[in-house]
Automatic annotation (TrEMBL):
Swiss-Prot/TrEMBL keywords: Signal
Protein name: DUF2490 domain-containing protein
Signal peptide extent: 1-19
Highest taxon of source: Bacteria
Source species: Allomuricauda ruestringensis (strain DSM 13258 / CIP 107369 / LMG 19739 / B1)
InterPro entries: DUF2490
Length: 230
C-alpha cells in the first residue's frame, strides 16, 4: 500500500509541474471523498465531500457535501434521489465584486453501465433543483447534467478513468459548463481506491484547470442491518 501511495504522489507532483494554466494564473485543486455503501440488496447510501481551492492548497473556493439514496434496479442500472449543501467563496482576486453564496440542492439521477471489450462505460443523467442564498437575495435555478465515463483496467491494481460532463441550464443561457477529466487510479483494497487526475472546466467565458485527488471507499454495510437471531 505504501508503494502505491508513493507512486500516486509522484504522479501528483508531475501533474503540478507540467499542467497548463489557461484562464487563471494559478493551478487549482479539488480534494474529494466518495462512498457507496450497500444497506440491502436493492438499496445503498451515497456519501460525498469535496473541498475546492483556487490554488492547490490555498484560497478556498467551495465546500460541497452531498448524500443520496440509491436504488439498484439491476447491477447495471441505478436510480438516485439526494441532497447537497454547497458553500462557495467567490472573493478570489480574479472575481472581485462577486459575492459568496450558500446553496441547498436537490437532485435526481439515473446511471446506466455497460462494457465494450475491456472498456467500462457509465452514463449518468442528473436533474438539479438549486436554491441559492446570496445573503440579501435568493434565487432558484434548475439544471440538467449528462456525464459519460470510461474506465480502462490496466492491471489488477492500476486503471485509467476518463469522463466528459455537460451542464445545461434550464433557464437563461442554455450552456452552463463542460468538464473534461482524465485520471490514473489505484485499487488500494477490494472496496477502496484513489484517483489522481486533471479536470478542464470550461464555462462560456472562462476555462479553469483543476488537479483532482479523489478517495473512494465503498464498504458493504448490509451486515449491520441484519436481524440477530434470538
Amino acid at each position: 500500500m505504501i508503494k502505491k501511495l508513493a507512486t500516486l504522489f509522484i504522479l501528483f507532483g508531475l501533474l503540478t509541474a507540467n499542467a497548463q494554466q489557461p484562464g487563471e494564473d494559478e493551478m487549482g485543486a479539488w480534494y474529494m471523498y466518495f462512498g457507496t455503501n450497500k444497506v440491502s440488496e436493492r438499496f445503498s447510501i451515497h456519501t460525498e465531500a469535496q473541498f475546492r481551492f483556487y490554488e492547490s492548497t490555498s484560497n478556498f473556493n467551495q465546500m460541497l457535501l452531498r448524500t443520496g439514496l440509491n436504488y439498484h434496479i439491476n447491477p447495471n442500472a441505478i436510480a438516485t434521489a439526494g441532497y447537497g449543501y454547497i458553500d462557495t467563496d467567490n472573493t478570489y482576486f480574479e472575481l472581485e465584486g462577486e459575492i459568496n453564496s450558500k446553496e441547498h440542492r436537490i437532485f435526481e439521477q439515473f446511471i446506466l453501465k455497460n462494457k465494450v471489450w475491456e472498456f467500462l462505460f457509465e452514463h449518468r443523467y442528473r436533474l438539479e433543483q438549486r436554491f441559492l442564498d446570496f445573503g440579501e437575495t435568493t434565487e432558484t435555478q434548475h439544471r440538467a447534467r449528462y456525464r459519460i465515463q470510461m474506465t480502462l483496467p490496466l492491471t489488477n491494481t492500476f486503471f485509467l478513468n476518463f469522463y466528459d460532463e455537460l451542464f445545461i441550464n434550464l433557464q437563461d443561457d442554455l450552456f452552463g459548463q463542460n468538464r473534461l477529466y482524465g485520471a490514473v487510479g489505484i485499487h488500494i483494497s477490494e472496496n477502496s481506491s484513489v484517483q489522481l487526475g486533471y479536470l478542464r472546466n470550461q464555462f462560456a467565458n472562462a476555462v479553469y484547470n483543476r488537479l483532482q485527488f479523489g478517495v473512494f471507499y465503498n464498504p458493504d454495510l448490509r451486515g449491520l442491518f441484519k436481524k440477530k437471531k434470538p
